[in-house]
Specification:
This protein is α/β, with parallel strands linked by helices. It has a single domain, classed as Metallo-beta-lactamase, Chain A (4-Layer Sandwich), CATH 3.60.15. The chain is built from six helices and 13 strands. The strands form two sheets. A seven-stranded mixed beta sheet has the order 6-5-4-3-2-1-13. Strands 7-8-9-10-11-12 form a six-stranded mixed beta sheet. Strand 5, helix 3 and strand 6 form a beta-alpha-beta unit. The mean pLDDT is about 95.
Length: about 250
């Protein structure tokens, strides 16, 4: 299984329009602080699946040489996680999309001119895709309705993507995602910045410790972190284009 972090930014991305903070300046100069919006590519020998389709999807697919996908999984209904699906218009028809009922209904009504093949999935019910086992689990990201994280298994290997979430994930979900080989965690800000809908970096590290993650990588990162080359010396920050073999 191969994981590629196509986009590791939060909703505004980095650089933020009009911002001249050191991180945004570094991003404008081409450093790894430059972050497009959230999307993750999951690959097996049998195909490619996207977890979320952020607004920058077109450039992400072009940069990473992705010509076709075998499925899309949506975690929730916020635009920075689905709006890029429109880039498949007149490019790839009848894309297979997966998610819980409420999420599919909202997104497909918004993208009413698209005609994907939609597959309703229930939380905690595993399903197979590209030879991998996927399970959606409940997380907490108000005011989104029933947001989910994604667990992926191949043999004895386990990857967990938290999606957007607060730290107070339910016991049922925590039990499911124990002992992952890789945890890709929402960590939108350092602990010095107040946040209500996401985890900060300290909370993400606490989650990783509590579930026994062998490795953790942060994503959904804002410009409130120091420039990447500085912040990554102390924190496991992901970056756009980062590839991880599991």
């Amino acid at each position: 299984m191969k994981i590629t972090l196509l986009g590791t930014g939060d909703a505004p991305g980095t650089p933020v329009i009009g911002c001249t903070c050191p991180t945004c300046i570094d991003a404008q100069n081409g450093g790894r602080s430059k972050r497009t919006r959230f999307s993750i590519l999951v690959e097996s020998q049998n195909g490619k699946v996207l977890v979320d389709t952020g607004p920058d999807l077109r450039s992400q697919l072009l940069v990473n040489g992705v010509h076709h996908v075998d499925g899309v999984i949506w975690t929730h209904t916020h635009y920075d996680h689905f709006a890029g699906f429109a880039e498949f218009h007149r490019v790839q028809y009848n894309v297979d999309v997966y998610g819980i009922k409420e999420t599919l209904n909202y997104i497909l009504e918004y993208l009413h001119y698209m005609h994907p093949r939609h597959h309703e999935v229930k939380m905690y019910s595993p399903f197979l895709l590209i030879g991998l086992e996927f399970t959606l689990f409940e997380v907490v990201h108000p005011p989104a309705k029933r947001p989910v994280g994604v667990m992926i298994k191949e043999g004895n290997k386990k990857v967990v993507i938290t999606g957007d979430t607060q730290r107070n994930i339910s016991g049922r979900s925590l039990e499911l995602i124990e002992n992952p080989d890789l945890l890709i965690a929402d960590a939108i800000v350092p602990p010095t910045v107040e946040v209500k809908k996401h985890m900060n970096s300290e909370e993400a590290l606490d989650l990783a410790r509590s579930i026994g993650a062998k490795r953790v990588v942060f994503t959904h990162l804002s410009h409130y972190f120091a420039p990447h080359e500085i912040a990554s010396k102390e924190l496991p920050l992901g970056f756009d284009g980062m590839e991880i073999n599991v």
